[in-house]
Please model this.
Amino acid sequence: MREFLSKEAAALSPYTPGEQPLDRAYTKLNTNESPFPPSPKVLAALTPDEFRKLNLYSDPTCRVLVNAVAARYGVPPESVIAGNGSDEILAFAFRAFCGAGISVAYADITYSFYQSQTALFGLDATMIPLRDDFTLCVDDYMNVPGTVFIANPNAPTGMALPVSDIMRLLEANQNRVVVVDEAYVDFGGETCVPLTQRFDNLLVVQTFSKSRSLAGGRIGFAIGAPGLIAALNRVKYSFHPYNVNRLSLLAGAAAMEDEAYFQDCTKTVMDNRARTTEALRNMGFTVLPSKANFVFAKSDRLSGGDIYRGLKARGVLVRWFDTPRLRDWLRISIGSREQMQTLLDRLKDMLEGA
Ligand SMILES: Cc1ncc(COP(=O)(O)O)c(C=O)c1O
Model:
């Protein structure tokens, strides 16, 4: 196979998704999905009639979904683009706003897909270290050249910046694009969407995968000034014009319109996060303050790798990153109350035996 690989493909740095093993039923707390099904309105929108229309291409403008997002966030539809997951939107943004003469900057510890995009598009990247306590300090970005990508809340730490910090960065950097990846913002973070009406160099990217229970539907979107959205559409129409399938367009619009269900699910996750954080701290874990649907935690007794493997053997999957700054830590998605109880019970088993 190797001899068929182009030089460019050989230089890639593919993203490693969280494992999805099929060998047994796991309590799955490793990919930050929602533990709840999609809104009942999503199920109602996916009628047999809509399935029958799968012989037809989807609407390349994604109008129904774009309009639902625009209405929910109080922005014009020209300020919105929809994508096949927010990963696709991020990829469009890396292509649209980085390249020859435009480098990219992001934290050393953040969503690792940014590194995959850097390799995919052959970009020059500056990785800016988080502080020792894992905080991201926007002052470290003020004089760095190129397009900035910030995940807020960050992954895998779950820690969030206030909007005032992003505003300070935007005010000092009006001549470059700042992309704020808000995949986890609905779990207690502050959104920068209102700032998109003031700063024409700010792009906010969000997803339906976490707070709207549609990870498998692959739906993301971005909000920004019409000029930024037009730039993203240039890339989209060069790569994948019918990028969101017919059923996902309907599912996404229905999910966006069910505000009550969204509020209910996100509140439950935040309640479960508070309960889990307290229980983990009582068991000797250090837990970073999270505004996401996961926590990042470190045991005072066992290594991250030992806990990851021990939990897996006991039927619980969490995410462990075997890199120097992260290998003591575990990223644990916040699931239902029952799932979190299972996690805590299995951890107790392990720590008692340690
Ligand atoms: C920070 C961040 N951004 C974006 C994504 C991509 O989400 P999706 O492509 O499912 O919308 C993820 C996925 O876990 C993420 O952690």
Remarks:
- The pocket of pyridoxal-5'-phosphate is lined by residues 32, 85-87, 111, 151, 155, 181, 183, 207, 209, 215, 220 (CB under 6 Å).
- The first strand starts at residue 27 and ends at 28.
- Residues 40-258 form a domain with the Aspartate Aminotransferase; domain 2 fold (CATH 3.40.640.10).
- Residues 5 and 11 are 10 Å apart (CA to CA).
